[in-house]
Amino acid sequence: MQNKPLNQALIGKAGSALQLQTPALVVDIEVLQRNIESMAGHCKNNGLKLRPHAKTHKCIEIARRQVEAGAVGVCCAKLGEAEVMVSGGLGSVLITSPVVSPSAMQRLCALNLQASELIVVVDNPVNVKDLGRCAGETGKALKVLVDLDPELHRTGIAPGQAAVELVQRILLDDQLIFMGLQMYAGQVMHIESFEKRQARSLVVMNTLAGTRALLRQNQIECEILSGGGTGTFDIDGAAGVLTELQAGSYIVMDREYNEIDKQASPSGEFDTGLFVQTSVVSNNTPGLVTVDAGFKSFATDADAPLLHWVQPGNEGVLEDAVYFFFGDEHGGVRIGKDKSLELGTAMRAIVPHCDPTINLYDHIHVIEGDTLVDIWQVDARGKSA
């Protein structure tokens, strides 16, 4: 039995967002919902289906809101995430990484019996053979996409003839159903210059289109062409190749995505809605305070968090305040030599990288204005397999 969330007693009380025991992961519900609806509208207007990546939030409630706004289903990076989403009633789930171990394939095929639609990617003929055998043991054929390598060399088979031959192997197995292709270029998403990001992404889209053309020459059609992300959502859609978009981070954004050039990308701005709320725990050094959120409170694969908000009554502090990591449990905030902050003062920081930061927390504190309105569980936290 799970313990109640630490701040549950504050839900619905006026001013409760300022009273959170910290560090706490905080989401602005108005921004979250606006971002969800904005991306859904973009995809609808551009003839794309939206299949957002649940690896960003790992939260059934957020996934439900995305589907309610028009998404066809969700992506999951790992089998464990997919199991959670299916158990939460999500209909169509795409697993975007190969599932290869015998025990994992057995879980996958068992999940296929439960899900209204489950799709998994493949990039290797050995995996194709093994999945077909495993699916045959359950009596329900398994839907698959062939994953193409966008020259990242992380996963994916080489585009072109190698991919065509893999698709032909799939078509020979009556326990597998070929659905199409996936091509996700993660190395492109955070290129700062819009022009350079656009050029690199269009190369990927053209390569995907080339493999689709080869398949058509062999009388093979693709129902699904899946890929793209938050950094290229308006580039990839305009290329006219994808049938569905896999963007994930757009729902809350982070420092990495906020800092890429969007000047040439007017079709959609997504607002920052995710923060770590932290509190001052020591203020003995002039111009410096210590807060209770350090390395353990943020994913640290990118730059440091950016301070976004300081508790009302401390006007003028934010313009000078700079956060730096001060240890596992603590952060330091330089606030200017002539300024100070009282113990307990709350701050909110924009996270460097939203996906792995969310995965550090059991719960998301949902705020509206100055009120804590709900607490959502990060249902698939830690589901790394």
- Low-confidence runs (pLDDT<50, min 5 residues)? none
CATH topology of the largest domain: TIM Barrel
- What is the percent of helical residues? 25-40%
Over the alpha carbons, how many angstroms does the gyration radius reach? 22 Å
Please give the CATH architecture of the largest domain: Alpha-Beta Barrel
Estimate the global geometry from the Cα principal axes.
Answer: elongated
Query: How many distinct beta strands?
Result: 17
Number of helices: 10
Name of the CATH class of the largest domain:
Alpha Beta
CATH H level of the largest domain: which superfamily? Answer: Alanine racemase
Query: Largest sheet, if any?
Result: 9 strands, mixed
- Total of domains: 2
Structural class: alpha/beta
Mean pLDDT: 95
Distance, first to last CA = 23 Å
% residues in beta strands: 15-25%
H-E string: EHEHEHEHEHEHEHEHEHEEEEEEHEE
Structure description:
This protein has 385 residues and is an alpha/beta fold. The protein has helices at residues 29-45, 60-68, 79-87, 102-114, 125-138, 161-171, 194-217, 233-239, 255-258, 354-358; strands at 24-28, 49-50, 74-76, 92-95, 117-122, 142-147, 176-183, 224-227, 244-245, 274-285, 288-291, 306-310, 322-325, 331-334, 346-350, 363-368, 371-377. α3 links the parallel β3 (74-76) and β4.
Short description:
The protein has 385 residues and is of the alpha/beta class.
